Amino acid sequence: xxxxxxxxxxxxxxxxxxxxxxxxxxxxxxxxxxxxxxxxxxxxxxxxxxxxxxxxxxxxxxxxxxxxxxxxxxxxxxxxxxxxxxxxxxxxxxxxxxxxxxxxxxxxxxxxxxxxxxxxxxxxxxxxxxxxxxxxxxxxxxxxxxxxxxxxxxxxxxxxxxxxxxxxxxxxxxxxxxxxxxxxxxxxxxxxxxxxxxxxxxxxxxxxxxxxxxxxxxxxxxxxxxxxxxxxxxxxxxxxxxxxxxxxxxxxxxxxxxxxxxxxxxxxxxxxxxxxxxxxxxxxxxxxxxxxxxxxxxxxxxxxxxxxxxxxxxxxxxxxxxxxxxx
Amino acid sequence: xxxxxxxxxxxxxxxxxxxxxxxxxxxxxxxxxxxxxxxxxxxxxxxxxxxxxxxxxxxxxxxxxxxxxxxxxxxxxxxxxxxxxxxxxxxxxxxxxxxxxxxxxxxxxxxxxxxxxxxxxxxxxxxxxxxxxxxxxxxxxxxxxxxxxxxxxxxxxxxxxxxxxxxxxxxxxxxxxxxxxxxxxxxxxxxxxxxxxxxxxxxxxxxxxxxxxxxxxxxxxxxxxxxxxxxxxxxxxxxxxxxxxxxxxxxxxxxxxxxxxxxxxxxxxxxxxxxxxxxxxxxxxxxxxxxxxxxxxxxxxxxxxxxxxxxxxxxxxxxxxxxxxxx
Lengths: 327, 327
Known about the structure:
2 copies of one chain form a homodimer. Chain A is α/β, with parallel strands linked by helices.
């Protein structure tokens, strides 16, 4: 079954996804923080995907894609190009099914990311660090071993898996007026929009995006998919462009895409670490940054926020880097 | 009611404490980590007091002491000398009851600790940074305003409050073979021993202590209270000596006091941040360090660990300080 056969995830499919992946994913907690409620003037419910296996929500989609492969396809393994959380998630999901995961990574990928993929048993193929090189190397790998490509976000099986995070949040919280979700390629945001439509239709869904990578906002406003150009944000998970499958769902279902400054991302990340005592990555912090920089949407409301991941290099924290916090 | 009237906490008292403070404290979660289980070969259950109000278990005891004051005493306020988590906890507990907390702090206390106490409405009196100065300044404050001293650990009301953490852990986990608790002044360890005696008598309780501040181990082995001399550990919460009330309980009920190296504390802290995605302070990390440096006690066992707090200066992380990690 490839992604076209799976089709747009409807309510029944998302209910089924949750059962399929239940034994593999963590049902992550939803946390609250009195002091962050006071600071923002909103009542915040944080869905902690930083506690997810592999350290990010990405494992939900990867697990779903891998679990639903027919045995014939599974035997050939899966493949992707990624230097981020999807690479780890796919390697982990594949190892849990006992199949191979071929991960194409740029040769300059951070050592910490390479060793994370290795620790999950992923088979790494290095390439030069350009998108054409990554794509051509991936095509080679697929040609050689017949592995199925699992795209990080532009795949309905992935979108359906990511949808499970918001579905769980809606079960665990009072009625939410708003939900704020980071947007990079749009897998988590489009999945969250679908779960909102089916399970909490009164909730308004906002995307949160760095100003320095504001392609989703531009695309949303101009109603056409505009790829990101030279993103220079600290939120490394959000430097990608929307996909042909994620964009239409976002265009139809998002209330707005809110952009946030680099300073606000760093401040929000630091506040989450200090006040909630949890480790989140910059991409995850964009949701609190959005609430702080756009309070008019959230004041006095019940607001859900998806903390997308917690994979950070503990030796390079942004508030210690003056070139980032003061630029 | 002063601490002598309260007396050694029996089972009935600890049950009562939990009801008294239930509306004030967080019932913190008990977390597990597959990867830390694999690393240690033990099945670990972490009681997350880093998520407690004020960022540490200290709020349990402070809340209990403040809540049980008669109105007459409460009207005069409470007082303590502390530059650590107890200062914050007492200020917060007092503000929740609407009474005054006088906190004597050394004039060289870190700004971050001073502002935390201020943020909870504590009234700070600075003094010179020696123990005699702290004690004489506290006596002055008490003389001036009639406030009741709430000692950070050598007080049965405090010990009974700290006992509630282990009592909750026992309710939330399978039968634990061992429990590991950081030991500084001994309030948390003695409280944990009492809760173990009453609620999980088959569990062996270990104290975890830095080699660089090994007074509890020395006292335990020599069966006499030996004050700490020049502690130079990164675990700033564990630089104090045992008290006359905590020591006998520890002597009678602890299985052993395990010391840990500074390197192990830093490594354990980093592992907890990386693998569990939670922020803990060095004192809290001693418990995992103890499991890693003394595996013979814990291999194949169900082991509870109390993560005592999460108050760290995010600008000064120990793994970035080569003088600490490599000395």
